[in-house]
Design a protein that fits this description.
Elements lengths: L5 E7 L3 H12 L4 E4 L14 E3 L1 H7 L17 E11 L5 E11 L1 H15 L2 E3 L2 E7 L2 E6 L2 E12 L6 H5 L11 E10 L7 E5 L9 E6 L4 E8 L10 H11 L3 H5 L3 E11 L12 E3 L15 H19 L7 H27 L3 H10 L2 H8 L5 H14 L1
Parallel strand pairs: 1-2, 1-9, 2-6, 4-11, 9-15
Antiparallel strand pairs: 3-5, 4-5, 7-8, 8-9, 10-13, 10-14, 11-12, 12-13
Pfam families: FAD_oxidored, GGR_cat
Keywords: FAD, Flavoprotein, Lipid biosynthesis, Lipid metabolism, Oxidoreductase, Phospholipid biosynthesis, Phospholipid metabolism
GO molecular function: oxidoreductase activity, acting on the CH-CH group of donors, NAD or NADP as acceptor
C-alpha cells in the first residue's frame, strides 16, 4: 500500500485506543490513516486481556460514553468468561467478589477493532514504523517502503513510550514507580478454577505488585506478574519472579504443575497516571500514551477505548470548526479522570503495604469484598482509606 501525501487525521498505533480513534474519526467524514508498526496486528501479544462486561464497565467509569465496540464483543474474540474475582493474601487467606468479565483473545480483538476502523473508511498501514514526528509531518519506513505523510491532526496511540507524545512534549512524570512490567505466560495443561480470576500477593513472589491466573478455557490459562523494576531484587528480572510464582508458590504451583508454556507475553504498564497535558493545537494522545489505565488493576482496554473515541470525535469536530482541539483534555478527564487519578492514589497507598506480607494480609482481611470491588474500579470508600492510612502509619 502507498499512502496519500496528506490526511485530515493520522493515528499512530492500531491497539484498542488507536483503532477506536480511527473508527470514530472516519465515521465523522474525515480522511484517516491508521499506522501500525506490527506486521500482524495484535502480535506479539502485550496484554492479558481481562475485560469486564458492558454493565460492569459502566460502573467502572459511570461518566464515560463507552464506544459501541464494547457493547457486544464477537464470540470469536472471547477465550472464556469469569464470574468471580479472588484475592489470595500472602498467608493464603482468600477473599473475593462476583464479577462478570471475559478473557479476551487480544490477537483477534485488536484485529476486529482495526477492521471496524477500516469499514468506517480509515486506511490501514501495517508493518510501518514512525521514525520521526515534525509537527504534523510523519516520517515512516517499513514493509511498504519509506514515506513522508502530513496530517492536519495527529493522534498518538503508540503506547507508554509514545514517539508522538515525546515530539509534542506530552510526557508522564519521570517516576520509576509509575511504570510497571507485565510479564506473562500462556499455558496449556493447567488445573484451575475456570470461573474465577485470581490475584496473588506476597513480597517474595511479586514485591509491590501482584500475580494472576486467568482461565482461557479448557485447560489453558494466562498467568503473569505485574511488577516494577525499582522493586526487583538484585540480579532478578520479571521473568524470574514469574518462574518463582509458577513453580514455587505454595498454592499456585499446585494448580500449574505439569503445564506447558505456549507463549510469552510482555509489555510496559503506565500506572503513574496521565501526563499534565494530553492535547496541543495539532496533536492528541490516547490509551497507554496518555496513561488511560486504572492503576489498581492495570486494566486499560476499556479506558483506552474511551480515550480513543474522544480523540477521534474531538479531532473531527475541531476540523469542522466546532471546537478547540485542546477540549479533548477536558473531555476525557471529565469522563474518567477521577477514576484514573483515584486509582493512582490508592496504588500509592498500597505500595508500602505490598512490601510487608503481614500488613498486606491484614489489609485483605479487613477490607470487605464490596470494598475490594470498589478499589478495583478506581474508587476509594472512606473506611478503606482510613484502614490503608492506619496501616501505612504503622510502617513509618
Amino acid at each position: 500500500m502507498t499512502p496519500e501525501d496528506s490526511y485530515d487525521i493520522i493515528v499512530v498505533g492500531a491497539g484498542p485506543a488507536g483503532s477506536t480513534a480511527a473508527m470514530y474519526a472516519a465515521e465523522n467524514d474525515m480522511s484517516v490513516l491508521l499506522i501500525e508498526k506490527k506486521r500482524d496486528i495484535g502480535v506479539p501479544l502485550q496484554c492479558g486481556g481481562f475485560l469486564p462486561h458492558y454493565p460492569v464497565l459502566q460502573e467502572l467509569v459511570p461518566n464515560a460514553e463507552l464506544p459501541v465496540t464494547l457493547e457486544e464483543i464477537p464470540s470469536s474474540c472471547i477465550h472464556a468468561t469469569a464470574s468471580y474475582q479472588r484475592f489470595i493474601a500472602p498467608n493464603g487467606l482468600s477473599k473475593g467478589f462476583d464479577v462478570d468479565a471475559d478473557s479476551i483473545d487480544r490477537r483477534r480483538f485488536d484485529k476486529h477493532l482495526a477492521k471496524e476502523a477500516a469499514r468506517a473508511g480509515a486506511e490501514l498501514l501495517v508493518g510501518t514504523n514512525v521514525t520521526e514526528v515534525n509537527e504534523t509531518k510523519l516520517f515512516m519506513d517499513g514493509a511498504f517502503g519509506e514515506f513522508e505523510v502530513e496530517g492536519k491532526v495527529i493522534i498518538g496511540a503508540d503506547g507508554p513510550n509514545s514517539i508522538v507524545g515525546k515530539a509534542s512534549n506530552m510526557l508522564r512524570d519521570s517516576d520509576p514507580m509509575g511504570t510497571g512490567t507485565a510479564f506473562e505466560y500462556e499455558l496449556s495443561g493447567v488445573d484451575i478454577d475456570k470461573e474465577a480470576v485470581e490475584m496473588y500477593f506476597g513480597k517474595d513472589f511479586v514485591p509491590g505488585g501482584y500475580a494472576w491466573i486467568i482461565s482461557q478455557g479448557d485447560d489453558t490459562a494466562n498467568i503473569g506478574v505485574g511488577i516494577r523494576e525499582a522493586l526487583f531484587e538484585e540480579h532478578l528480572c520479571a521473568r524470574d519472579y514469574l518462574e518463582r510464582f509458577m513453580y514455587k508458590h505454595p498454592i499456585a504451583s499446585k494448580k500449574l504443575e505439569g503445564a506447558s508454556i505456549t507463549s510469552v507475553v510482555a509489555g510496559l504498564v503506565p500506572v503513574g497516571g496521565a501526563p499534565k497535558v494530553t492535547a496541543s493545537h495539532n496533536t492528541l494522545i490516547a490509551g497507554d500514551a496518555a496513561g488511560h489505565i486504572i492503576a489498581t488493576n492495570g486494566g486499560g482496554i476499556s479506558t483506552a477505548m474511551v480515550g480513543g473515541k474522544l480523540a477521534g470525535e474531538t479531532a473531527a469536530e475541531f476540523l469542522k470548526g466546532k471546537c478547540r482541539l485542546q477540549e479533548y483534555d477536558t473531555r476525557w478527564r471529565q469522563q474518567m479522570g477521577l477514576e484514573i487519578k483515584t486509582a493512582v492514589y490508592v496504588r500509592k497507598l498500597m505500595d508500602k503495604l505490598m512490601l510487608s506480607d503481614r500488613l498486606m494480609t491484614t489489609a485483605i482481611k479487613m477490607i470487605t469484598p464490596e470494598q475490594m470491588k470498589a478499589i478495583q474500579c478506581g474508587q476509594l470508600p472512606d473506611p478503606v482509606k482510613k484502614t490503608l492510612m492506619k496501616l501505612n502509619v504503622g510502617l513509618s
